[in-house]
Structures are given as C-alpha cells and as structure tokens.
C-alpha cells in the first residue's frame, strides 16, 4: 500500500532543515527570558518575535520544526490539491475548447514527489539553523516541566522567567471496534503514501476530510466518505449544499447521517461496517486505505501539566485567561493547544500576544482579540468565512440583513467557466458595517481578504463600493456585493425627486 515514507533527496532535505541528524543542543543559558515548548507555527512565531526584540529565548521541539502545517498539514495538502485540480481541469478541457490528451491521468508517485520537493523548498523558513541565526537556542528533544520556572530536555535543565506552551494538536481517532487491527491513516501519515489507493474510505467530513476526499477522487481513487451528521458543520446550509454537490460530482460517494460501527476482515478484504440513520440497514464498505479525519485533539500530555496542576477546559485545551496566561502567570499557552480555533494564521495571531504578554506582562498586558478571524476550506469550490455566519447570528439572537451576490453574474468568473458560487454579507439592519461575510467559489480564500480588512478596521460596504477595482477581476465581486446592498438601501424619496427632475428636463 506504500505507507512507508520513501528515503529520497527531498525528505533528506526536509529533515536536514527541521531536525538535522547532526544537530547538537547548545549549552543552556543560566536563565532564559522565555522558553517555548513546541516549534509549530505558534512556537516559531513566539520565539522569533521574542528574539527579535532582544530576549534570550530557548525553543524546544520533540520532532520536526514547522509542526503540522509544514510537515503534515497545510503545505502538503495544498500541493496535493493543486495536482488534483490539474487532473480535473484536463478532464473538463472541452469546456475551454481544448482537446484532452489521450491516456492522461495522475502519476501518483510523481504527485507525491512534487509535494515532498515543494515542502522541502519551503522548510528553510522553519529551519533549525535559521532560528539559531535569529539568536534562538534550539533544543531537540522531549521537554518536561521541572517546576514553574524550569523545563528539562534530555537531562539538561532550562531555567526561565516565562514559558510559552505551544505543543499543538494530534489527530483524533474514533472509538471504532477493530480500527487499530485493520490499520488506518490520519493527516499525519497519509502524505507518506507512494501508491494511489484503489478504494479510500474517509471517516469524517470537516475541512480535512472534505479536502482530501475530493483531492483523492479527482486524482482517480474510488472514495467513500462517511459523516456521522453532515459535512462542514460550521458552515451555513447554502455553502454546504454547493460543496456537497461538488463532492458528489467529483466522484465521492458521500454517506451523511452514517455511523461507523466496526472494521472487519473477510476473505482478506478489509471492510468498514456502517449504518445509515437510526435503525437503518448495515453496509460493509471495502477499502485498502482508511483515513481518519474526525478532527484534532490538543497535545497536553507527557510534558508535566499534571504535576503543575494546570487545568484544562472541557474541550481539552489548556485553560488560559484573556491574556493567554495559565494558572501560573509566567506560563502562557498559544496555538492549537490553547484553542479555540485550529488555524495556522490564528496560531500566529495568538503568538504575538503570547510573546508580548510573556515579556512585558508585568508592565502592560494585551487581551486576545478574537473578533475578526477568517477561515477557508480548500475544497472546490472553496468556502471562506469571516465574522458571523447566518447560523451563528440566529443562535445568538443578533438582528441582521443578508446581501447576496451570485458569481454567475461576474464577468471574470464567466470567462473562466467558473461562474458558480456566491458572496454573502451580513450587516446590521439599515447599516453598511459588516457583521460577517461568506464566499463560496473559486479563489474564495483570496476574495475574503477585502472583507476581513473592512471588518478589522470598521470600513463599511460604502467604502468598498467607492473603491476602484480593476476590470475584469475576481475582486470586483466585493464591489458588486456592495452595490447590491446600496441599491437595496437607496433612499426612495430622493429617487422619486430625481425621476421628477429628469422628467421636467425632458419637457
């Protein structure tokens, strides 16, 4: 099945950057201003920021610098998605008046080699030597708190004034009978595949599950996706409907409202037994690879939280105050281990607060600002959201108006045969300020930035409407959305007066 990561120059280059085999931990300082546990996005940004303003910083990583995002998350998944969309575009070439070449198809080992090559190319940003050059003391090994002012790494004690826990998260595994005996992959291992599975079963229908199910189906794998309820549970129903239709159109057999009961092996065939609905019939789905994509759990064990008595929240994250401090004011937490969101950009956002509050909390502390947090699911079509969704606004009893602009009206979308999807904004009744925005369509993640900027700085739809957008571009969708709002809120008395004026001028 090709589950073993091949030893090639690109893996060697990656490891040489993010966990060099010849690395020797430095002699520790007598005391550090800041010790950071974990070298994913949150830890790297915290360490770099603190070192950049002159602090003495130690960074401890047990495995690979770069964390999930570089090694087993954002970077490899987007490489795979890009390759899958090339295959899809060739399949749909006749829409563009182009004849698809005979015998086209994905070279899966080549696809994965490309991913490893690009991942290795990006890895220098997160490399051990880069952070050492920034003045950070990098320690490779398992860290464990030896009290509220020290951690131990391989027998070496690092004393600190402040510490930041940025240990990230790990893949969650469902309690399905026989799952471990059958074997399964998660996002932490699926990118080690070197052979295309014939039949992939995906457990879970959040962003990771939907992205990978669609990508593998487009590349040529038979994919069955099993969702206990529906897909993308945080999104509005109109966005979900478009993504669900796209998944099915791309060949994903999508089973919603379906429970995974157990794994079994019958005549050397691996099967996942499921049941649709309450009291529904059972079905045994054969697979050669099973991917668990039901979410990620904060990594909170094995480094001494229990001994310090640092409490967790009901969701399993480290309990912090609004300034990211734990029960010990000198120990802070940020990133996936602190929550509430598991986004790379949010981890970086939190890291600034962790670094500043850690170093200067005795002088001035800053409360975490969670008001404008964008998110993107990189399916095709993409789903991008910032601020309140309709579902959230209703649940919170917040009054709102909806303005919607359908992308089948956008000239650039039409020229690219991608005229599907929409832009939807929520505003207070009668006002142009933004409560939230949702975009579904190609380049939705890029288009969201204008609305995120507007929300962050209090700019309303009138400001977007009054801004020149180049033609023909996807960005015009924002202006046309603002124009739709403006027409709906044009003062009727003034319009009536203008009609009479022009009628008088015509004589």
What would you report as the Rg, rounded to the nearest angstrom? 26 Å
Average pLDDT number:
95
Number of helices: 17
CATH architecture annotation of the largest domain = 3-Layer(bba) Sandwich
Give the strand tally.
21
CATH class of the largest domain: Alpha Beta
Helical/strand content category: alpha/beta
Task: Tell me the overall shape.
Answer: globular
Helix percentage? 25-40%
Low-confidence segments, ≥5 residues, pLDDT <50? Answer: none
Strand content: 15-25%
Q: What is the CATH T-level topology of the largest domain?
A: FAD/NAD(P)-binding domain
Give the termini separation: 82 Å
Largest sheet: 7 strands, mixed
What would your notes on this structure say?
The chain is an alpha/beta fold and 507 residues long. It folds into 3 domains: 9-171 and 297-360, FAD/NAD(P)-binding domain (3-Layer(bba) Sandwich); 179-294, FAD/NAD(P)-binding domain (3-Layer(bba) Sandwich), CATH 3.50.50; 381-488, FAD/NAD-linked reductase, C-terminal dimerisation domain (Enolase-like, domain 1). It is 34% helix and 22% strand. It is built from 17 helices and 21 strands. Strands 1, 2, 3, 4, 5, 6 and 16 form a 7-stranded mixed beta sheet that branches. A 5-stranded antiparallel beta sheet has the order 17-18-21-20-19, sandwiched between helices. The longest helix has 18 residues, at 74-91. The protein is globular and about 95 Å long.
């Amino acid at each position: 099945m090709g589950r073993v990561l091949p030893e090639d120059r690109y893996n060697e280059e990656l490891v040489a950057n993010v966990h060099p085999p010849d690395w020797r931990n430095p002699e520790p300082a007598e005391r550090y201003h800041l010790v950071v546990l974990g070298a994913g996005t949150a830890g790297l940004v915290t360490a770099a920021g603190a070192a950049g303003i002159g602090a003495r910083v130690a960074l401890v990583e047990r495995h690979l610098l770069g964390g999930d995002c570089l090694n087993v998350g954002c970077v490899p998944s987007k490489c795979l998605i890009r390759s899958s969309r090339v295959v899809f575009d060739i399949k749909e070439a006749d829409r563009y008046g182009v004849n698809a070449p005979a015998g086209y198809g994905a070279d899966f080992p080549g696809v994965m080699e490309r991913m490893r090559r690009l991942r290795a190319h990006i890895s220098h940003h997160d490399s051990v030597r880069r952070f050492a050059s920034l003045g950070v003391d990098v320690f490779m090994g398992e860290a464990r708190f030896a009290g509220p002012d020290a951690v131990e790494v391989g027998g070496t004690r690092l004393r600190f004034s402040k510490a930041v826990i940025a240990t990230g998260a790990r893949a969650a595994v469902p309690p399905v009978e026989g799952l471990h005996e059958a074997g399964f992959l998660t996002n932490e291992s699926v990118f080690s595949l070197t052979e295309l599975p014939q039949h992939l079963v995906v457990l879970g229908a959040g962003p990771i599950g939907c992205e990978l199910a669609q990508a593998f189906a487009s590349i040529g794998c038979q994919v069955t996706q099993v969702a206990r309820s529906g897909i993308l549970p945080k999104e509005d129903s109109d966005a979900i409907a478009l993504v669900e239709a796209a998944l099915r159109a791309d060949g994903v057999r999508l089973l919603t409202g379906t429970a995974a009961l157990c794994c079994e092996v019958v005549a050397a065939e691996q099967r996942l037994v499921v049941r649709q609905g309450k009291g529904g019939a059972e079905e045994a789905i054969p697979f050669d690879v099973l991917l668990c994509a039901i979410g990620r759990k904060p990594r909170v064990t094995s480094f001494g939280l229990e001994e310090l008595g640092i409490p967790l929240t009901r969701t399993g994250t480290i309990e912090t105050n609004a300034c990211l401090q734990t029960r010990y004011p000198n120990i802070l937490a940020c990133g996936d281990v602190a929550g509430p969101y598991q986004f790379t950009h949010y981890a970086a956002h939190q890291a600034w607060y962790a670094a500043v509050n850690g170093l200067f909390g005795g002088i001035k502390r800053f409360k975490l600002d969670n008001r404008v947090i964008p998110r993107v699911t990189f399916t095709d079509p993409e789903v991008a959201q910032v601020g309140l969704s309709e579902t959230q606004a209703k649940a919170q009893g917040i009054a709102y108006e909806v303005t919607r602009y359908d992308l089948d009206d956008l000239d650039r979308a039409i020229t690219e045969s991608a005229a599907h999807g929409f832009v939807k904004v929520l505003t207070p009744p009668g006002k142009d300020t933004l409560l939230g925005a949702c975009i579904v369509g190609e380049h939705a993640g890029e288009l969201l930035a204008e609305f995120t900027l507007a929300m962050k700085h209090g700019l309303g739809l009138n400001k977007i409407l009054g801004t020149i957008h180049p033609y023909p571009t996807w960005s015009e969708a924002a202006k046309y959305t603002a124009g739709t709002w403006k027409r709906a809120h044009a003062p009727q008395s003034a319009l009536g007066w203008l009609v009479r004026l022009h009628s008088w001028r015509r004589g």
